[in-house]
């Protein structure tokens, strides 16, 4: 079996120290664990200059696109890492599925406006990655066996060179504005609860969008945001000169390692307190909330069903239920569902059978998605989609793209939402949608 070469580089706790050398490169991508300020994430992954860029065609089915992804991995070629080297990526695909990729999987209406015109899926095929292991404090360049020596040497020269000048400027041109008024938000919550009372659904995740014009490059904005809100599934995906996806997500969607599957849904949120006592009180309130525990359990059951489509019978388990995770702006209630891929199933089967994540749709999933399309005035684009890598060994990790901003065509978009159930109070839900993104909006508005 061909083996990747692995070359040690100087350890950097902040991935920006390396990424700024190639942030302007075609297909530049940083999957960021949020170190040194965040504590849960282990690996940063950096790459650029993909061998190919795969975007879903306007009339292409999800299965046909999946076949192209598998073919790209086959063309790159299977490879292993050296004995004793346990890194998450050996060359393969890095990119995103937008929330609206779900339209290729389910029959949904088309009422919400597609005003951002974002491709529903896009992946680069990469034959190298710079991977930082923060547990071992190692930084290593992983080169797929097909990577030419000359290309490897140029990468090493670039990564070992002096740091480039500081990035260009970034500034908002006006404060963020919501797409939905408070009255419109209240009306939408009322309609969702009418659907719940009539038996259409049990829960619907409803979101609102905030937008502001900007000038400059998103990279400095990412630096401000990751400092204000470090999270273990952060990411920066370049979409062109001044366009990018910037994610500060705390939520894992699906991970596959040697056939073992894990998903960690978030459902339940409280703001951080201004004092230690109020912070502890908010955390305790979340942990004891019957409403939030019921919502979380509802999504756990949905995900057990989704994983069951691709996992071996009897392998799906819930090893962790209602755990508390705390971030700079919020406390979250998090559970864990695991399984083992069934024979004949791969990571792409799992992805297609589970997308989009149940924690950001509702239950039952398809009906909830139909109601979302009816009540949210615009399509979600990257919000509640997934950022992910999938390597030539079948290893995969992916996020739920919450706390995520799209910088495109001089306008930055950011979304906040939450799960609505029968006894939801619209004022509390409205405030929660603001709380989740408040630190992101306020941080960027400081550039005005």
From TrEMBL:
GO biological process: folic acid-containing compound biosynthetic process; L-tryptophan biosynthetic process
Protein EC: 2.6.1.85
Residues annotated as domain Anthranilate synthase component I N-terminal: 13-141
Residues of the Chorismate-utilising enzyme C-terminal domain: 182-436
MF terms (GO), sorted A to Z: 4-amino-4-deoxychorismate synthase activity
Compositionally biased intervals (Polar residues): 272-281
Record bears the keyword Heme: no
Region feature Disordered, mapped onto this chain: 260-281
UniProt feature coiled coil, ranges: none
Pfam families with a match to the protein in the record: Anth_synt_I_N, Chorismate_bind
Keywords from the UniProt entry: Aminotransferase, Transferase
Entry keyword Transferase: yes
PANTHER family (UniProt xref): AMINOBENZOATE/ANTHRANILATE SYNTHASE, AMINODEOXYCHORISMATE SYNTHASE COMPONENT 1
NCBIfam families named among the record's database cross-references: pabB
The protein's name: aminodeoxychorismate synthase
Organism, scientific name: Pseudomonas fluvialis
Biological classification of the source: Bacteria, Pseudomonadati, Pseudomonadota, Gammaproteobacteria, Pseudomonadales
